Amino acid sequence: MRIIGGELKGRQIQPGKNFKARPTTDFARENLFNILANRVDFEELSVLDLFAGTGSISYEFASRGCKSVTSVELDAVHMGFINRSIQQLNLEKCIRTVRYDVLKFIPRCTEKYDLIFADPPYQLPHLSEIPDLILKHELLSKEGFLILEHGKNNQFSDHPALFEQRIYGSVHFSFFKNPAGENVSI
Fold it and tell me: How many independent structural domains does the chain possess?
């Protein structure tokens, strides 16, 4: 696994052979961040990375200079790896980690974020409820948006907050806007 862009571009991070998380593929990450690079000012973003897994998305945002990144992951092995990687990459000032069940974290969170990225296990029973849960608990800033990574078995085309979908191989990204915000275009 490598960091695709920004200050840390090219840095390799190896979670190990027995690591259970499924990181977003380099191809999908590269395409996602190419889209974002033309639409957002990374240095102004506060980011929430849900189901952080290997932390690859958090490192990408931090490498591009985001003002803050919060990574939420329940698995102790994954969180240990993320914390070690943050130290190795000298990202302690940018990335904050929270070891917590995401579905319990969302209702308890009192912060608002400009961008929320969620990459749950594709087989998570409540995956389809994540956009509504985030919107219900108002975790997005006024013009913030959510990017949900999921497989082909989840469809959100009828969701009222959906404004964009992108597909890269088996990786699907669905983009949701804060209904209280302005029109967002990605």
Answer: 1
Task: Look up the domain containing 140 and give its range.
Answer: 26-177
- CA atoms within 13 A of residue 185's CA, in its CB half-sphere: 0
- Considering the entire predicted model, what is its pTM? 0.93
Beta bridge partners of 149: 173
DSSP states along the chain? -B--SSTTTT-B----TT----PPPHHHHHHHHHHHHTT--GGG-EEEEES-TT-HHHHHHHHTT-SEEEEEE--HHHHHHHHHHHHHTT-TTTEEEEES-HHHHHHH----EEEEEE---TT-TTGGGHHHHHHHTT-EEEEEEEEEEE-TT---TT-TTEEEEEEETTEEEEEEE-TTS-----
Q: Would you give the distance in Å from CA 112 to the centre of its chain? A: 14
Let me know if residue 155 belongs to a domain: yes
CATH number of residue 81's parent domain: 3.40.50.150
Q: What percent of the chain shows pLDDT beyond 70?
A: 96
Q: What is the mean pLDDT of residues 36-56?
A: 95
